[in-house]
Amino acid sequence: MSDDHAGLAALRQQLDEIDSELLSLLAKRFDVIRKVAELKKDGKIAIMQPERMAAIMASRAAQGEALGLQPALIKRLWQAIIREACTIERKAIGEGEHTLQAQAVRIDHIAIAVRDLDQAIKFYEESLGFSMVERWSIEGAFSGMNAAVLEAGNVTFVLVEGTSENSNVSLYIDSYGPGVQHVAVEVDDIDGVRGELSARNFGFIGGIYEVGGLKQMFSRRDENSGMQIEIVSRGSSARFEKDNVRSLFEIMEREGVY
Q1: CB atoms closer than 10 angstroms to residue 51
Q2: Which of 29, 125, 181, 194 has the most other CB atoms within 10 Å of its CB?
């Protein structure tokens, strides 16, 4: 092994040790949160304390900046920590919580129906600075869809275009116009989310589609808002699985929904 490789191995060992310390400290923090929850339960104190949360965010951002860390990073990190702390407190107190309140991680992507895919790609790349990372097509029994995946930072847009006037995408545009076709929410436990939402009579199209650890399910479109919700669980590094999308596309064709 060369000196360069030996030096790299030593630095990686340092990183492993630091990560271990971070995880240990995080576990200790959540142990304290459980004790806080017991006191709140005994004192009938509300879980959410907006002033306290605002003070924490401000002080941690200032501390992080003094250490040379980006405030935006600290904000995202502490938002995740606070969300988990609230979930722990609700469980400890025995307060009911809607599945998505506990399970929703982030907006995974937003699908946008467009009339002209090439023109749309040009707009998002040249005007907004997005980068196209994937482009693919699928064919159902009666029609098809072209799609392009564009990313900027942690934001993902999926542009979709119908291949004919009978395509689900084309029918969607005819009814609602171009624009947001569905919003995808990432969750940790997609099976649990489906069970609770089904118990609430929330309508789904088909089942849970899974390829390579990537699980997806889709709601029926809400007539009032025009919105369709996708729930996704990522046990895979793949951005999208065409077989999942094709299965949904074919069911929507059979049922005449879009």
Answers
A1: 7
A2: 181
